[in-house]
Design brief:
The protein has strands at 9-10, 15-22, 27-33, 38-42, 47-61, 64-69, 73-76, 82-97. It is an all-beta fold. It has a single domain (17-103), classed as Jelly Rolls (Sandwich), CATH 2.60.120.10. Strands 1, 2, 3, 4, 5, 6, 7 and 8 form an 8-stranded antiparallel β-sheet that branches. Pfam families: Cupin_2. It comes from Pseudoprimorskyibacter insulae.
Length: 105
């Protein structure tokens, strides 16, 4: 599917998400954050890879915290509790394996 086939949807206050591509095995999602936007703490069975396209974020991962900025990337293991605070407006590109069916329209 092409990016334009997926709507941009609210994903919390100051946060939107848009599925960019998907298959049963892999999904790519763009998350756009306004400064102060939050990704609430959560966990899921999917392995997640996050690339910071722009902005600056404080991430929380299994009880630790770290800051990331444009060009940084990291992997979140399956089942790990994680979330983030947006310190400077920006965009995260997340890949999930397998696909996050809950993100499909």
């Amino acid at each position: 599917m092409q990016q334009t086939e997926f709507p941009e949807v609210a994903s919390g206050e100051g946060v939107t998400r848009q599925v960019l591509a998907d298959s049963a095995e892999l999904m790519v999602v763009a998350f756009r954050f306004q400064k102060g936007g939050q990704g609430s703490l959560h966990s899921h069975p999917h392995v997640q890879s996050t690339y910071v396209h722009s902005g600056k974020f404080r991430f929380y991962l299994n009880g630790t915290s770290f800051e990331v900025a444009a060009g940084d990337s990291f992997v979140i293991p399956s089942g790990a509790e994680h979330g983030c605070d947006c310190l400077e407006a920006g965009q995260l590109i997340d890949c999930f394996t397998p696909r996050r069916d809950d993100f499909l329209p």
